[in-house]
Write a structure and sequence with these properties.
With 358 residues, this protein is α/β, with parallel strands linked by helices. Helices cover 47% and strands 13% of the residues. The chain has an eight-stranded parallel barrel with strand order 2-3-4-5-6-9-10-11, surrounded by nine helices. A two-stranded antiparallel sheet has the order 7-8. The radius of gyration is 21 Å and the shape is globular. The structure holds zinc ion. The site of zinc ion has 6 residues, from loops.
C-alpha cells in the first residue's frame, strides 16, 4: 500500500495516500496557520527537521495579511494573498524534502465567493501544471441547517474533484473563533452543539463519498484558542462512535472517515493520542504557534531594549544596526515556531514518517 510520493505540494492520489498512511500508522499531521513567508518557512523548516509531512493552511484573514494590509480591495487581497502564499509553498516545499498539503481554513457562507475565486485560480493552475493550486479547501457551514451544509459542500466538491482536490467540511461546532470565523456558543461541557452527532456524519458520508475525497472536522468539545484548564471537556469517543456508525451502515473498512481536530492548541496530550487512534489525520494549530513567535520576539526586544529606541548606543555611540535588523527578531520568531512544532510532531506521532521519497 506504500505509494512513492515526491516531495513538494501533494494533491489527488498522492494526498489520499498520505492520509491513508497516517491513519494506518496511527499518527496525524499538524496543520499550521501561516500569515507570511516567515511563518511558511518556519513550518517547512520544522517539517524538514522532524522528517514529517505537514499541512500549511491559510485563513481568509491570513491571506489578506499576505497580500498586504493596505491593499485597497479586500476581496482581491484575499484571493491574491492566498495565491501568493500557495506559489511560495509550491516553489520551496520540494527543496525542503517533505510532502506539504496546502489548505485553506474556515470559509463560512460569506466567504464562499473567496473559495469560488480560488477555485478559478486552481483550475488555471491545473491547466498549466496538472496539479491544483491548493490540495484542499475547507467549508465551514456549521452555522446552517445540516442539509444545507452538506448540499453546498457536495456542489463545491463536484467542482473540486475535477481538479484532484479534496474538501474539508465541519459538522457540529468548534467553540471559539478562528480568525473572525466562528460562533458565540456556550463552552460548557453540557452544550450538545459542541459534540457532533454520528448520524450527521453518516449523512455527510453517504452524500459526499460518491463524489470525491473529503474530510470532516467533527466536534468533540474542541475549542479554538487556549483557555484555563477545566473549561473544555474533550470527548474523543464521539469520533469513535461516528467511525463505527459509518462502518456498520456503509459496510466499509475500519475508520472510513478522515477526521480533523480543530483547536489543537492547549489540548491534553492523552486526548490528542486518543483522537488520533480514532482516525484523526490532521490537527490544526494556530494559537500556540502565534504565541511561540510572539514570545521569542518579546524576549529578543527585552534583551536588547536600547537597540529598539536608539540607532546608536546613547552612552558610547556604538551602532546598533546589527541588533535592530528585522531579520534578527523575525528569525528568533521563526526558530521558536519551529521548536513548538517539534512538540506537535511528537504529540501527533509523525516524527520520521514523511511519505516523501528521494
Ligand atoms: Zn478551526
Amino acid at each position: 500500500m506504500t505509494r512513492t510520493v515526491n516531495p513538494g505540494v501533494v494533491s489527488g492520489k498522492d494526498y489520499q495516500a498520505m492520509v491513508a498512511k497516517a491513519k494506518a500508522g496511527k499518527y496525524a499531521l499538524p496543520a499550521v496557520n501561516v500569515v507570511g513567508n516567515n511563518t511558511v518557512n518556519a513550518v517547512l523548516e520544522a517539517a524538514a527537521v522532524a522528517n514529517s509531512d505537514v499541512i500549511v493552511q491559510v485563513s481568509n484573514g491570513g491571506a489578506l495579511f499576505y497580500a498586504g494590509k493596505a491593499y485597497p480591495d479586500s476581496f482581491e487581497a484575499g484571493v491574491l494573498g492566498a495565491v501568493a502564499a500557495a506559489q511560495h509553498v509550491h516553489l520551496l516545499a520540494e527543496r525542503y524534502g517533505v510532502c506539504v498539503v496546502l489548505h485553506t481554513d474556515h470559509a463560512n457562507r460569506k466567504l464562499l465567493p473567496w473559495i469560488d475565486a480560488l477555485l478559478t485560480e486552481g483550475e488555471k493552475w491545473y491547466e498549466k501544471t496538472g496539479k491544483p493550486l491548493y490540495s484542499s479547501h475547507m467549508l465551514d457551514l456549521s452555522e446552517e441547517p445540516l442539509e444545507e451544509n452538506i448540499e453546498t459542500c457536495a456542489q463545491f466538491l463536484e467542482r473540486m474533484a475535477k481538479i484532484n482536490m479534496s474538501i474539508e467540511i465541519e459538522l457540529g461546532v468548534t467553540g471559539g473563533e478562528e480568525d473572525g470565523v466562528g460562533q458565540d456558543v456556550d463552552l460548557s461541557a453540557e452544550n450538545s452543539k459542541l459534540y457532533t452527532q454520528p448520524e450527521d456524519v453518516l449523512m455527510a458520508y453517504q452524500r459526499l463519498n460518491p463524489i470525491g475525497h473529503f474530510s470532516v472536522a467533527a466536534s468533540f468539545g474542541n475549542v479554538h484558542g487556549v483557555y484555563k484548564p477545566g473549561n473544555v471537556k474533550l470527548r474523543p469517543e464521539i469520533l469513535k462512535a461516528s467511525q463505527e456508525v459509518v462502518q456498520a451502515k456503509c459496510n466499509t473498512e475500519n475508520n472510513p472517515l478522515n477526521l480533523v481536530f480543530h483547536g489543537g492548541s492547549g489540548s491534553e496530550k492523552s486526548k490528542i493520542t486518543e483522537a488520533v487512534g480514532y482516525g484523526v489525520f490532521k490537527m490544526n494549530i494556530d494559537t500556540d504557534t502565534q504565541f511561540a513567535f510572539a514570545k521569542a520576539v518579546g524576549a529578543y526586544v527585552e534583551e536588547n531594549p536600547k537597540a529598539f529606541k536608539h540607532q546608536l548606543d546613547p552612552d558610547d555611540g556604538k551602532p546598533y544596526k546589527k541588533v535592530y535588523d528585522p531579520r534578527k527578531f523575525l528569525r528568533a520568531g521563526e526558530q521558536s515556531v519551529s521548536e513548538r512544532l517539534q512538540e506537535a510532531f511528537e504529540d501527533l506521532g509523525s516524527i520520521g514518517t514523511s511519505a516523501a521519497q528521494g
